Amino acid sequence: MSDIKIYQTRLFQNQKKKLKKNQIRDLDKAINSLTKNPMQGQQKTGNLSKVWVYKFSMVNQQNLLAYLWDAKSRTLITLGVHENFYRDLKKSIKL
Question: How far apart are CA 24 and CA 65, in angstroms?
Answer without folding.
Answer: 13
